[in-house]
Backbone:
């Protein structure tokens, strides 16, 4: 062991408390310390940050770390300060600092106390920053999240493309570029832009063996939210991230999660800085379990125990997907990565590109296409993902850590069909894409097929007995197994590889499972589709009998105990705890507490006796203005505002307000409408009506109006009944 290696290990132990390096860390650090450029591609959790932190701490001068997200620099700096003797060891320089704070940072750097200076690219390009950095001794420059340099990367930042030019103006120091995700194309683009073609490249495997990948169909909003809440509830108290594409969606999803008892907060660039930083800190400090975020959240966040990452919306690229899922399980423990997929979402992403320049639109379309390919594929998710990053992976080593390997679909023999597809790609000579090849094989004479005269080829119509999904599956199989090359830069044109030519010459048996076909749910359908519950009729009958018994014992009509819809919901969801009973339609905390116990007991016995597997379902509590409306109505009743004025204030007609009041009372909330009732009827008359309601099992308002010879209107009688319910049932 050389003295240098010994010294590095001593420094590693001294500063970070580790006894040994992970993977390629030691080689990377040695390269930087020797004054050479290097390019580091390591997956999240592999220890990229240490590759520049340790050499910065033991080198003369200050290392400049260029980082894209101002909001996260403070966390990175705080983490480093924990390893140093004083706070001066690390600083950040960006637009969030006051003039006094900026002067202090520059003083510490000038006096040699600062080993690491984090700088945003927007700050770096300012003349005053360049002049300042020229005046101090720099050890090296690190470009973190280097994929931001490439237009083919998932988070392109134009400012990043000028970094090399700016650094050259400052000093000729070594440079290290680091990223957790880079396809071969992105890697080359980064190296060219940073003038690092001669740099030593350190590339770890992209495989994250501890992550489980799963794609679920994104049905209606109600079903998707139920699936999401059910998934999170199974991981109570665990940390997770839910990624959404829009700021509005992050807030909406976090509100619904909160309404359903999940400690969730939103995070997006539109929040004021204090709220955004506060929400992030609550997540890091475990005061919040779930963050609903746009992609801005997570870069540079060192939270090792994120147990799940959920994509509520499909990401714009596989790079983005890989980077975001990589935030799960950084401690090496298992992490779940779930993507909700709806083909309509990819169409929506493509529409967002329509106003972009042509080149950017073409790039974006191809990246979205690769994302859809991954979601629909029936092959090993891990193999598909790693292939995209230029890495060959044996699906046998997935160890059932993806849904396709855990629950494989039925396969069929496809050797002859694969040979035909490869021959079709061979003779088209890399000039056409997937759709064109499929048209040839299916015998569809599209204008392009005719123009190339490919309708005259012997393979035209070879596979007309198979559908489009079959051929799409087969060609994708060829891609992942390196028989077919897809040129993403050139609009996804397909060509045959050397391995593909060898396969044509000497085919071996191939079995394929058809790719999944997802229902395309439009925005309107996504918002409106509701699931129809089919309840257990036998249990419902037992609950109905119990309702009568409880009502008789309490001297109340049965409908006062629980509504029909509540009994139906119980017979569908089988609630066996008080918390579950509170979530049943029309049953709130008060009603569950007052009447729920015997019903829970009956349901629990029924489930045990009949070996019923309860549905993994829940009542989805909505937050669409209903809670605000309920509070407003109750507050106005407390203020004794007239019913007519309350209705007007909520934009409701009189009947709609009565429906709202009925729902409020039926769910177990008490109201006091006597100020309104006393204007219509005296106390003696009210007692007479209450006596009638107690003896009437039907709850019919028409019958009540007739009983009192039409002395009161239908609306007035309904108000009397609501107050009666509030007094006796809540």
Residues:
């Amino acid at each position: 062991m050389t003295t240098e290696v010994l010294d590095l290990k001593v420094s590693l132990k001294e500063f970070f408390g580790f006894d040994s390096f992970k993977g390629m860390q030691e080689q990377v650090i040695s390269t930087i310390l020797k004054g050479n450029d290097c390019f580091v591609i390591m997956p999240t959790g592999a220890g990229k940050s240490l590759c520049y932190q340790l050499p910065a701490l033991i080198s003369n001068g200050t290392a400049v770390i260029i980082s894209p997200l101002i909001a996260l620099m403070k966390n990175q700096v705080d983490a480093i300060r924990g390893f140093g003797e004083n706070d001066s060891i690390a600083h950040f320089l960006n637009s969030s600092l006051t003039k006094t704070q900026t002067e202090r940072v520059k003083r510490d750097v000038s006096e040699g106390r600062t080993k690491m200076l984090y700088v945003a690219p927007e700050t770096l390009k300012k003349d005053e920053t360049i002049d300042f950095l020229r005046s101090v001794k720099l050890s090296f420059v690190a470009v973190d999240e280097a994929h931001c340099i490439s237009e083919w990367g998932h988070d392109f930042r134009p400012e990043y493309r000028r970094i090399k030019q700016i650094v050259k103006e400052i000093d000729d120091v070594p440079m290290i570029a680091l990223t957790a995700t880079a396809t071969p194309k992105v890697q080359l683009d980064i190296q060219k832009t940073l003038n690092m073609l001669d740099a030593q490249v350190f590339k770890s495997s992209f495989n994250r063996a501890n992550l489980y990948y799963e794609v679920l169909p994104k049905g209606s909003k109600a079903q998707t939210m139920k699936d999401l809440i059910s998934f999170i509830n199974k991981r109570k108290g665990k940390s997770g991230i839910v990624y959404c594409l829009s700021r509005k969606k992050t807030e909406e999803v976090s509100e619904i999660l909160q309404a359903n008892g999940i400690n969730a907060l939103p995070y997006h660039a539109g929040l004021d800085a204090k709220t955004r930083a506060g929400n992030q800190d609550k997540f890091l400090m475990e005061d919040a379990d779930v963050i609903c975020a746009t992609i801005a959240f997570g870069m540079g966040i060192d939270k090792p125990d994120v147990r799940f990452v959920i994509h509520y919306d499909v990401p714009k690229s596989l790079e983005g997907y890989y980077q975001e899922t990589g935030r799960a399980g950084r401690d090496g423990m298992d992490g779940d990565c779930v993507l909700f997929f709806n083909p309509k979402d990819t169409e929506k992403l493509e529409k967002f590109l329509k106003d972009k320049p042509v080149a950017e639109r073409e790039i974006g379309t191809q990246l979205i296409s690769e994302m859809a390919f991954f979601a629909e594929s029936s092959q090993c998710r891990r193999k598909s993902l790693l292939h995209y990053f230029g890495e060959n992976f044996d699906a046998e080593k997935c160890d059932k850590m993806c849904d396709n390997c855990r629950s494989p679909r039925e396969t069929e023999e496809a050797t002859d069909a694969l040979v035909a597809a490869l021959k079709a790609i061979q003779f088209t000579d890399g000039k056409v894409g997937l759709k064109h090849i499929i048209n040839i094989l299916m015998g569809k004479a599209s204008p392009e097929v005719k123009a190339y005269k490919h309708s005259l080829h012997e393979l035209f119509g070879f596979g007309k007995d198979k559908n489009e999904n079959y051929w799409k599956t087969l060609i994708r199989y060829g891609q992942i197994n390196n028989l077919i090359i897809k040129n993403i830069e050139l609009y996804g044109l397909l060509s045959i590889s050397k391995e593909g030519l060898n396969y044509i010459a000497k085919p071996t048996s191939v079995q394929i499972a058809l790719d999944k076909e997802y229902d395309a749910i439009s925005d309107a359908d996504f918002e409106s589709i509701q699931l129809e519950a089919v309840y257990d009729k036998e249990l419902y009958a037992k609950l109905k009998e119990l309702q009568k018994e409880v009502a008789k014992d309490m001297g109340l009509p049965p409908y006062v105990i629980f509504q029909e819809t509540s009994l139906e919901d119980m017979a569908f969801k089988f609630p066996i705890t008080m918390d579950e009973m509170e979530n049943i339609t029309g049953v709130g905390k008060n009603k569950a507490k007052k009447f729920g116990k015997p019903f829970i007991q009956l349901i629990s016995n029924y489930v045990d006796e009949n070996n019923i597997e309860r549905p993994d379902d829940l009542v989805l509590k909505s937050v669409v203005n209903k809670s605000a409306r309920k509070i407003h109505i109750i507050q106005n009743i407390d203020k004794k505002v007239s019913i007519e004025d309350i209705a007007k204030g909520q934009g409701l007609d009189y009947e709609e307000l009565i429906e709202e009041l009925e729902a409020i009372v039926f769910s177990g909330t008490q109201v006091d409408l006597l100020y309104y009732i006393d204007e219509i009827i005296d106390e003696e008359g009210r007692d007479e009506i209450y006596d009638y309601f107690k003896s009437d099992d039907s709850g019919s308002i028409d019958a009540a109006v007739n009983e009192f010879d039409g002395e009161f209107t239908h609306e007035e009688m309904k108000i009397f009944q609501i107050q009666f319910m509030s007094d006796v049932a809540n």
